[in-house]
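1st attempt posting a full record on here, be nice pls
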Amino acid sequence: MRKEDMTRRRDAIIALLCEAEELSAAALAARLGVSVQTIRSDLRQLDEAALVQRRNGGVRLRQPSENIGYAPRASLARAEKQQIAMAVRDLVPNGARIALGTGTTVETCARMLAASRADLFIATNSIHAAIALQAAEGAEVVLSGGTLRLRDLDVIGAASVTFFSSFLVDLAVFSCGGLSPCGAVLDYNTEEVAARSAIAACARRTVLVMDASKLGKALPCRKGMVWEYDVVVTGADLPEEVQQQCRASGCEVIRVGPDRAATNSDAEHV
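the predicted structure (as C-alpha cells):
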C-alpha cells in the first residue's frame, strides 16, 4: 500500500471523528471501505501519535495541543465556510487593506475575495491564503517571514507578531481554535493566541470567523471574549447570554444558515 493512501485514510479517520466524536473500528471500516484490521492498524498508529484515544471498543480524538492536520480540516463544514466567506466578502469594499490570519475558513474567505474584489492590500501569515489570492485583480499581497509550520504552511509566534505590528489595516479577518459556552475565545497553544492578538491589534475593525464545530470545543489556551471583536461571522447558534453580551458591547454577530448563502442582506443578524 502506498504511503499517500495510508496518509489520506488516516486524515479521513480524523475528519470522521471530528464530525461524530466517537466511532467504533467497524463503523470507520464501513465508511472508508476497508477492513476492520486495516482500521485497527491505523488506530494504533494514531494512538501512538497521541491523536486518538481508544476505549471500550470506541475511538475518539484526544484533546490536542495542536489542531488536526490541514487537509482533514479543509474537508469539514465546506458549505458553512463558503457561506461565512460570502458574508465576509460583503464587509470588504474594493481597495480595502486587510490582514488575514491562518486556517481553512480564512483561506476560503481569501478565495472568495480574490474572485469578487479588486485592488486589495493583504498582509497575511498564511501561505494557503496567499495562494488563494493569486488571481485577485490588482492585489498586493505581503507575506510574513519567519519559521514556517510545514504541517499548516503558516507562520505563528514572534515572527508573526512583529510582522503584523508593522501594519495598520481597515479589516482583520481571523479564526480561533474554539469558543467556550460563556464566550471565551480559545486556542490550541500560546503561539496561536499571540498570532491572533497581533492580527487583531493592527486593524481598525476586527472580524472573527468560525464554523459551528468551534462552539463548546475545550482547548487549553484562553484570551479574550468573543464580544471584544467588532464582527463575528459563524454558523453556530451562540448561547443567549453570549448574544446579549455581544449586543451590549456593540459586537455584530452574523449567523449564516445551512440552507442559504450568507450576505449582509439575507444572513441572520443576531
